Amino acid sequence: MGRQQDMGNIQNIEDIRKRAAQHRKSGAEQEESIKRKAGQDMVVLLQNWKERLRRYRIYRFILSLSLAASCTALVAMLYYQIDSSIPSVINVRAGEEESLHLGVPARGEIISVSDQGTSNIPQGAVDIDLSKTFTLKTALESDYQMQVKLFGFITLKNVEIQVIEDQELIPVGAPIGIYVKTDGVLVVGTGEFQGPDGVSCSPGKYILKSGDYVRRVNGETVTEKDDFIQRMKDSGGKPVILTIERDGELMDVEITPARDINGEYKIGVWVRDNAQGVGTMTYIDNKGNFGALGHGITDVDTSTLMHMEGGTLYQTDIVDIHKGSSGNPGEMTGMIIYSDDRILGEITNNSNRGIFGICNQKALEMGVREPLPIGLKQEIETGTAQILCTVDGVTRYYDIEITALRLDHDNVNRGIELTVTDPDLLAVTGGIVQGMSGSPIIQNGKFIGAVTHVLVQDSRKGYGIFIENMLEHP
What we know:
The protein has 474 residues and is of the alpha+beta class. Helices cover 23% and strands 41% of the residues.
């Protein structure tokens, strides 16, 4: 019994050892499993951290890029606003004091005088704080150049200070009929036509383009579209050499006309040789010259400034007015009778600042008002002003509000922003309508500009050109 009991105890001890060993093994396996799992979790956590770090860097880069772009846009906008607040040319009257307030964080230095050849002005001798009101008084017949530096150290632009003689103009504000003859034949566009075999063709396509002026055909001058069309018909299908003007340069191109279904030779282009319209005469000067429109005559299809061979101004009567509304600019319709007894003068120049020419006696009789002194840019204020125009058969003044001034706008015809406030004019036209271009703008007894455009979204609002810019025409 004792021996069996000892054997049983030994067996129990072995079992305990085995169980302990198994337990230790199991614990070690569990520990190893926990370590593996912890390691895997750590790897996952590390991967997640790296992914979050990568995303954070991307977000930070995008945010930095957006911030840099915003700052650049803000600086560019500030630069543009300051630049447009400083005119490239400042006109001042000879021998008179002119006070200017540009209100920009910049300084100006007079660096040269035009009639001296080389400047004898010491550097920094004439320094102007453009954030404050300053006064200029210039000698006769001397122009100056002022260098403008933003914040006093970043060179912004050079400003010409031009000395001009005081001038008076007669404001007119009467409707005029306009006829302009192009200098050559204007190409409006190209198109296709069917040949005798029914196949479409367009010989002029890719050779001519909208805005080209055809000056000569096979070396012979051409001025009328009917003459040009006839020469294509008479070509017999042989190549023709066209001398064209494109972007101010003359060049020769060769085109071979083709027959259409009627057997006539064509090159597949639309052409124009003249333009007509209605506008408003702006002023008559003391030499009998006129200025009108405040913007150039452009082709209705190509929007390019038309090159003139000549033009005539006609007396016209307004027969109908289409009132302007939001998104729909109104229009004055005039009746133009092309007879010699209704001619008002000769148009000699068509520029982006208006049309200009010489008045005859009939036109001079339209200048019945007293001449007014011109108002320079620096003398104009935001606030009340008047425009002079004819909408009901009577030429009279109407009230407007000048809402903003752009002294050096990139579009010369939009230096003045204005709103029509006169109830009588609003009742008849709804504001500014086509045909009112050229209406004189008067403020404080001075002739300051002319109406040029209407804002399509709001016909009460529009733009004007400074009168001094009109007087700078070539």
